[in-house]
Amino acid sequence: xxxxxxxxxxxxxxxxxxxxxANRLKEPVLVLQPSLELLKQNYAKLVAIGxxxxxxxxxxxxxxxxxxxxxxxxxxxxDWQKLRDLGLKHVxxxxxxxxxxVTGQIGTFLxxx
Length: 113
Known about the structure:
This protein has 113 residues and is α/β, with parallel strands linked by helices. It has helices at residues 14-24, 36-48, 73-76, 80-86, 105-112, and strands at 29-33, 54-57, 62-63, 68-72, 90-93.
């Protein structure tokens, strides 16, 4: 099945859009970003709209998984079983164009989950 892709120009409020979508979903959500800087930015926007999430990032010293989890793929890629056990239903990939290879880290991770 096809997965939706949303494209927004610079300064369109992508971090807020991600936060709103992730915060409104009723099933478990994982938000993946390609860098620690984007994780911090995206998480800050979620908090700014009143949302709550766990952070799974070795760079930030936190490896928590919950209903809504913000993570970097390098940190969480080996813990896919925990997300499967949680019943993960949705994955939001920030900067998804960086992860186009089906055989790459993201592709392998998503197949496992």
